[in-house]
Specification:
This protein is mainly β. The strands form 2 sheets. Strands 2, 4, 5, 6, 9, 10 and 11 form a 7-stranded mixed β-sheet that branches. A 4-stranded antiparallel β-sheet has the order 1-3-8-7, with no helix packed on it. The radius of gyration is 13 Å and the shape is globular.
């Protein structure tokens, strides 16, 4: 059974930083991309960043950096210079490269106060 478990969310003041973690288990993820999405209240879920096994990554948020530790099957999202508009539930996802996101975590809340 595949599980993605996020951690590291919380309340932070604007300008602060957080690092989210997502621990994956239940299968081999060597051919999988792992990613982060977020969903703010009343808004659709949006893509934040993704990373392949090789380490190549995409991010639409210049203040955020994604990384992964393949030995630990863990992906991280370093978020700097946080803004109130970054407030959302952040979800970890995994899926075959070039295909749909198959697996999702339960989400972790990030709240940025002004």
């Amino acid at each position: 059974q595949v599980q993605l478990v996020e951690s590291g969310g919380g309340l932070v003041q604007a300008g602060g930083s957080l690092r989210l973690s997502c621990a994956a288990s239940g299968r081999t993820f060597s051919n999988y991309a792992m990613g982060w999405f977020r969903q703010a209240p009343g808004k659709e879920r949006e893509f934040v960043a993704s990373i392949r096994w090789s380490g190549s990554n995409d991010s639409v948020k210049g203040r955020f950096t994604i990384s992964r530790d393949n030995a630990k099957n863990t992906v991280y999202l370093q978020m700097n210079s946080l803004k109130p508009e970054d407030t959302a539930v952040y979800y970890c996802a995994a899926g075959p490269v070039g295909s749909s996101w198959l697996y999702w975590g339960q989400g972790t809340q990030v709240t940025v106060s002004s």
